[in-house]
Amino acid sequence: MADMLLRTQGLGKRYGEKYALRDVDIHVRRGDIYGLIGRNGAGKTTLMKIVNRQIHQSAGSAFLNEVPISDAASHDLHIGTLVEVPNLYPDGDARENLTYKRIALGLPKGDDDSALIDLVGLADAGRKKVKQYSLGMKQRLGIAMALLGDPELLMLDEPINGMDPQGIADIRQMLVRLNREKGTTIIISSHILDELAKFASVYGIINEGHLIREITRGQLEEENRADIEIVTDEAEKAAALIAEKTGIAAEVAPDGRTMHIAQHIDQHKVISRLLFDAGIYVEGFHVRHRTLEEYFMQLTGGGHGA
Amino acid sequence: MRNMLKADIRRLLRARSLYVGMLVIALVVAIATAGFHFLTTQSVEGLTRFARNHAREDSGNMQAGLAMAALISPESARQAMLELRRQTGVQTLSQVPIQQVGVAHLMLVIVVTLFAAKDYHTGYLKNLLTLKGIKTKWLLSKVVMALVVSILLSLAALASAMVGAMTLGNPPTFDVGLMAGFFGVHIAVDLALAASVLLVLTLSQNKTAALMFGMLEAFNLQRAIYLLLDATGWISSFQLSDYAMMNLAAAYAPGDPPGQVLWTAAILFAVYLTGAWLAITRRDLKL
What is the complex's ipTM, to 2 decimals? Predict the structure, then answer.
């Protein structure tokens, strides 16, 4: 439990007769980059709103450092949040928006605001008012607001919405740097699963208000090996050798050079050594994985995107 | 709490609506000053007409009494004009936007609603929710901001009244104790109005609803509701409409004992603020 930063226990939220969240137990360890995945309306934002004390849970509890989050009168939560949309004063510029929050947080005056503005790539915005910002710029400022005060947990809901590819890459690199250098724990939700797959260390998959799977990156890779693809001029010979020595069937493609092994994928090292020892020249050897999106679709029964 | 207050003060002093409100009050005083100037420099016939009109409306009014004298002769009319001009000092002019026109209470409602609702409609409050007891602090800070707005609007009325008095050739002096009591009563009324706005804002989480309710309240919605309740005979031995805050405030003259209006404002303030506190701490925020 010592490394557990955030956990929920039977967390639920009901609107009338409808459950937006039901019996959710998530476990976010210190240092995790926790990717929260689910379709629209699955309950991701509801979960974040409860953790942000924006709404009250109908059932269960959420704990930060083993202290109940709902106990709002007794302690600060050292959390930086960007939930749904960046919430900014439109008539102020980036610095002004940061200043109000900094004062409210009781943080001392310093160079932090400039550093944060630089960090999220808004240095060129100058004194431009937020109402003149593009959606991507607002998202960047929203992230800067969340980072103010150096929170131990950063909770970002769709933070790369409206950003261009370069902006997405910048934000990803920034989050990874924060995680590695400062040890900031991050919970992030995004519909762009390929992007999440690039840096999340744990995934929580929510469907229809239920957390249906919590899985580490390593487990995901382990579980999602799809096949081994081998490219060699001696495909038939290689397939026969593998079958003879290991009993594993390999299927040679019509091009006569490519072969696929769909079973016993965990034996990829044995197969590789076997071909090497037999003097078979291998041009390509790939253990292929299903994508996060394919895994998500399989778990949730396909249909609409995350 | 101190941090929330500091952040709010900084934002309040940058809010355009505050300065527009002060400007409107100054404008009302300027219009009143121009009116008094016109009144006291007009023809004897005009003043006689004024005297007749005033006499019909309120025979106990000091200005009407002076104007009545104008009916006697042109000389007494000129004397009446001079006397009326002399009487139009800081005390008279500073009451105009607060009591005669009621625009000061309306401005208070508008400034406080726009200021407080901004945290809701921009969702900025969401950035602060992880702080300990922030909802209570937010609410109390808005009450303090309402107090600051009320004081600033009162000062705008006083300052513009001083300028107005000098324009009319009167000294910019006033009885500090008397005016402090007068402004104090109206600041108490302002706080009750602000609490009502905060209640509707925290309940509805909607700026328009809060603004409309506050404006109706400033225009004495309460009396209309009380009259309705009185008409139903709900409480037979008691006329609720006698306790309508804006009525009591409008009838309050400097130097009067402030008991009834202060108590009414204090009770409404406590009820509205408790409601607002329950609403903000118990309800989900739709930000």
Answer: 0.74
